[in-house]
Amino acid sequence: MDYETLRFIWWVLIGVLLIGFSVTDGFDMGVATLLKVVGHGDEERRVMINSMAPHWDGNQVWLITAGGALFAAWPPVYATAFNGFYLALMLTLFALFLRPLAFDYRSKLESQAWRSCWDWGLTLGSAVPALIFGVAFGNLLQGVPFQFDDILRLDYQGGLLDLLNPFALLAGLLSLLMFITHGAAWLQLKTGGELRHRSAAIGSWTAVVCAMLFMLGGVWMLLGVDGYQVTSVIDTQGYNDTTGKVVAVSTGGWIANYSRFPLLWLLPLLGVSGFLLCAVTMKMGRHVLAFISSAAAMAMVIVTTGVTMFPFVMPSSLNPNHSLTMWDATASELTLKIMFVVVCIFVPLVLLYTAWSYWVMRGRLDEQFIRNNDKALY
Amino acid sequence: MDIVELSRLQFAFTAMVHFLFVPLTLGLSILLAIMESVYVMTGRTIYRQMTKFWGKLFGINFALGVTTGIAMEFQFGTNWSYYSHYVGDIFGAPLAIEALMAFFLESTLVGLFFFGWDRMSKEKHLAVTWLMALATNMSALWILVANGWMQHPVGSELNLATMRMELTNFADVLLNPVAQVKFVHTVSAGYVTGAVFVLAISSWYLLKGREIAFARRSFAIASAFGLASVLSVIVLGDESGYELGDVQKVKLAAIEAEWQTHPAPAAFTLFGIPNEREQRTDMAIKIPGVMGLIATRSWNTEVMGIRELKEEHRERITNGQEAYTLMQRLRRGEGSEEDIARFEEVRSDIGYGLLLSAYSDDVANATEADIAQAVEASIPKVWPLFWSFRAMVAAGFIMLLLFGLAFWHSVRRQPEKSPWLLRFALFSLPLPWIASEAGWFVAEYGRQPWAIGEILPVHLAVSSLTAEQVLSTLVAIGILYTVFVIIEVWLMQHFARKGPTGSGYLDDDIDVAYTTSSPYREEK
Fold first, then answer.
1. Contact B96 A375 (CB under 8 A)
2. Which of A99, A339, A357 minimises the CB distance to B111?
3. ipTM here
């Protein structure tokens, strides 16, 4: 396997990890965001929390793995993005801090004030990252103000407030609503009665909004957002300095890949239909189908974003020639090869025991179950 | 304070708080698996109750371990951006492998450990518990492979085109002797932490005359497991000493306040007051020959002293300066044949050249004074290392004594008849944490001024941020972590005080409820 192929595979794999994160951690972040909205009273909230209790920790590892894989496979991207989005990521971290504690500590004491505090912690800890991840991608699509010096030290010229521009906020809203929709679908799989009805009502509505935001974002991107294109020849097999290429910028330029391969239009189309199908199936009470279609729609949103920017991963608005692409911002050939072998062995294993754990914990929960197992549950 | 100091402080704080929880997770996970094994083999429910009760405390600790672990995974990118760029090709891999191979398994199974009791056979649940414990240990392996490489970077080389270190031999990184020694030393220390935790709380019950049957069994398991573990920590710690003598001479010299090279075999300074200004140790009590034996395992090999190491560093910094100049020329594509040949000779010292960038913006033209400053700063401060190392060792030997006595008493007769021993065990509760934190301090502070030993100085490794940005996050993390730790410790003592009886683990109704009335079992 040559360097070029490995680089392409890793571009796909990073996407796979992000999709894995959205499909698994996405639903528990969504459920946690809805905690105070659809959960009336302590017992209903405990039903919601315990529906994800055995899984949230494993789900969260998709995020950790995506971070680790980014570090290993695209070190310059990890270094640039995490440093560049410093305060936004720190806020995300602080929010994420609250989740494990809220899950584990919330129901350990009887006090309602204690529990209510942790409920807010769980909601904040899930909604803030969901929003910021979208904001981050919204900024990647517009380019980020960075450049490198002669020994490739980063010079980042932007702040937290620059990240919160209208287009990025739209992307953030989309990712938050995607997770909420997905969480609502999960609640329909795992709960009954009122709770299930309320989540179906909310989820079918947010799914439609997702479809609309996704389309709006697409139109906005093609009319008002700068697209990037490499105009020099990149040696896809070689070791490149990330600063040694020529990049052209033009408004609406992100359409280039679609013009060249019109079949790619299917991807956003599938995304929109996924959201709509999800809305319809929720209304019909076909909860399995609803969960699958919301997962598929999220996957298509991620794939669409990746394909639109290809081969860019992190364009630079400050010095476009210093943009990071999946051809020049990768790890060495040896590291990519070793990590690919590791992924080939362990990702199937992970999927296998994750599936087993969901199978073991299958079934619906209700308030009676919470009362019967008061001490042993979250 | 500048950005470098603030970033170091933030890393030190987050890492040290994280490591309050990691060792207990390592040790308790194994102890839980042992207790549950006894339950499955003997069928006696008290061992299941033990697994569940200690499991509850394990969970409280585990949650904060996960929380503080998230920060660890992401702060290399946020706060050590140039580090991430410069060594991500090697350092990122073990972190990613850790997540894929170990953390996924651990986190998935921890859910089944807590919530799967009635949903699978007891053999299957036992397998879950053991695999969870195994995964926890595998996590430690990969993290310590990463840290071992920071201490002793092997299997890699600088690529001038990409201006970073790149992997040349993965097996070298994995089998790095420093990483191997660190792994076994660290996980054993974790086992000791788990054992002291169980021993101390069980002793408290015995002192109060509560939960006797429960506490006596927990005491017995903890004392046996603890004795084996503490012996292995000490033996493997000695192995670490040998590795230091081999590959991290500066750290060893600083730990031992070895101001200059003495004739072999060097003496071990048991006690003394390091005097940085005079470069000597006041009031030293020395044991002849011991340090030479530990560090070199021979009678006639010298242990290098700080004065001699500085001379060596001066030479390497001068070479590094030349290497840096040549590198710039080569990167611009202006190097001649001779330049390339000369670069090959001095390239291993390029990290030392980078040390100069702390004192001069133009490394190539750094002055003699700059070099002198870099040489002085090439050795970490002695007294913090000297003292924290001795704190760690002392804590280790006190715990050896504790477990020796506890094991003897639990084998020979009932430990509750020796209240002094129970009190000794109770008051020893902080010792494993003191030892672990001191140990990590020695490992990390002792590597200064390097982020990656002899490759990348710590002042270059930081992110492109302002001091205010780092200060604000440092304060925020400080407040958050403090609140979290207070809550965690409060919950811990709350449930420890309640004990297994008060927590509902001694009536088995809880399991009956699970199996009979649970609608959770099958979907209709």
1. no
2. A357
3. 0.94
